[in-house]
Amino acid sequence: MNVVIKPRPPLAARVIFAAVLAVLFLYVIPFAIPNYLVSQLATVLVFAIAIIGINLVTGYGGAITLGHAAFVALGSYTTAILVVSYGWNPYATIPVAAGLSWLAGWCLGFPALRLQGLYLAMGTLVLSITVPALLKRFDGFTGGVQGLNVGNPESPVKWLDDSQWIYFVCLAVAAILYFVAARILSGPLRRAMVTARDNHLVAAVLGVDRAPLATATFAMSSLYAGVAGSLYAMIVGFVSPDTFNVMLSLSLFVGAVVGGITSIGGAIVGAMFIQFVPTWASDIDVSLGGLVFGVALIVTLVILPSGIGGLVGRLYDRACVRLGWTEAAQDERDERQTAGSIQNEPA
Amino acid sequence: MSLLSINGLQAGYGPRRVLQGVDLTIGDGQILVVLGANGAGKTTLLRAISGTIPRAGTITFDGKRIDQLSARKVVAAGIAHVPQGRGTFADLTVDENIRLGAYLRNAADAKRNRERWLTFFPRLRERLAQQAGSLSGGEQQMLAITRALMLQPRLLLLDEPSLGLAPIITRGLVDVLAAIRKETAMTMLIVEQNANLALAIADDGMVLESGNVVLRDTAANLVGNDEVRRIYLGYE
User: Does A44 touch chain B if contact means CB atoms closer than 8 Å?
Assistant: First the structure.
């Protein structure tokens, strides 16, 4: 049996793959499909950004969060309030939204990550439930139930219409944040995160300090949610409290699981799932939307625990092996001992 | 000159006190084997030294008190701990597992050290790119030890390295430990139920019973001690 960890396609194949992706994202999506779909795909990119945040905190941090919508709301309202009440340029609000949600994530992450597993899920769920109510309560600031009318930013380029323009803005931000996440998840930090997630004792004896790592992960994840929220406000042009309800948190979580909880590339698949599938389902029957979510979650967990991203990764590995595109391929010799040869009992 | 000296060490889990006041010293370059029945406190002793459980008493390592330090600082001071059950990460490759050990060391040294330690474990070199989950039990134990060595420790704590391994694999492992000691003069504290093998490479041994040290002697004397032979070495 071949155990191959490093598939390595030749340069030509990688160039072709990159070119296909570039044509898809830079030409097909913005220019070759109906216009109403372009802004929906911009929303997909925004969801993908938020889902990468969940990949970080749940996939690698090992903490189940159902409060992601609260940080999306923070980002959205930061942008909305700065634009509406203070007349800021909307793009200038993106870094502010990022910074504020990072800070909020850091402050909340500190106590929240002392909670384990189910308790953290409950704690963050409370956050999701509270935020819309808070937004309504402080209506002088947030516009209350009426929401705030941000307006869509106008395209400064005359051959791009507004939805194409915002699509490109989202694409640029998503691409940057994707590469940042990919960078975080390579090298020593990824190893430290996996260690802290999987074995507390080993993490400690290797010198990995779990608490600051977990807090930083939570903060980073919130930053992703906040940036997603900021862009979301620009795409929709309007923010209101009930957009950011518990259902959004759950949707994003389902998207992360369907796409693959540790697969940041799968985030885009999960995002497409939560953007399109419920709508298609409710076209067939109004009550089908929610059901599809639940079924998708269960089916993924049972059949594809590593999600669609994980499946694609495995198929890709296998294809590379088939084509001989590998590095350091090694045969696993059958030298395993039988488990029956245990001579001592565990202490 | 002793590298590690412990006085009146008490430790436990929650309200349950396991170590009742342990005293011990290990000389620089010595191998000390800790024997004891299940529940005697062997694992707890190692955890107390590495700072992964709350403890009281004094622990002096290389002339400095470490009993108040966090686990991270104990590691940084040069104490590597290979916990029971190995704790290798199945999802990471063998290479990634090894590099984890150098988390507190700089990357340039890590590469050179990896080469050095892999000379003791050639099987791992062949398997660097494999996922650790695909290794056999013996290889995983080698991986856990290599990972610990990547810290360049002065003191290596080994908790039941033979657990779940076939006798022949255990023998191979003990031989490698002996070779490492011969070449590097590394100090080791080994908890081991396979006392025969462990005492063969040890300088000293000690027996823990209910959280107390009841016996401490040279390995040769312990092998000759009737009671130790009967209880821990399996002679009738």
Answer: no
pLDDT score recorded for residue A241: 92
Query: A208 in helix, strand or coil?
Result: coil
From A197, which residue of chain B is nearest by alpha-carbon distance? B89
Q: What is the pTM of this model?
A: 0.85
| Residues of chain B with C-beta less than 8 angstroms from the C-beta of A327 | 129
From A335, which residue of chain B is nearest by alpha-carbon distance?
B136
Which three-class secondary structure state does DSSP give residue A138? coil
Q: Where are the domains of chain B?
A: 1-78+153-236, 85-151
Is the minimum CB–CB distance between A340 and chain B shorter than 8 Å? Answer: no
Residue B169, classed as helix, strand or coil, is helix
* Amino acid in the structure at residue A249: S
- Contact predicate A151/A233, CB 8 Å: no
Confirm or reject contact between A303 and chain B (CB < 8 A).
no
Domains annotated for chain A, with CATH where assigned, are 11-338 (1.10.3470)
Q: What is the mean pLDDT of residues A55-63?
A: 92
Contact at 8 Å (CB) between A197 and A60? yes
Q: From chain B, pick out residues whose CB is under 8 angstroms from the CB of A330.
A: 126-127, 129-130
- Architecture of the B1-78+153-236 domain: 3-Layer(aba) Sandwich (3.40)
CB A332, CB B134: distance < 8 Å: yes
Cα separation, A182 vs A190, in Å, equals 10
Angle of helix A93-112 versus helix A117-137 axis, rounded to 10 = 130
**Which residues make Cβ contacts (< 8 Å) with residue A24, sequence separation at least 6?**
none
Q: Phi and psi (nearest 5°) for B181?
A: -65, -40
Q: What is the pLDDT of residues B101-115, one digit of tens each?
A: 888 887 778 888 888
Q: What is the pLDDT of residues A268-322, one digit of tens each?
A: 999 999 999 888 888 888 778 778 888 888 888 899 888 999 999 889 888 888 8
Q: In sequence order, what DSSP letters do the residues of A79-118 get, joined into one string?
A: HHHHHHHH---GGGHHHHHHHHHHHHHHHHHHHHTTS-HH
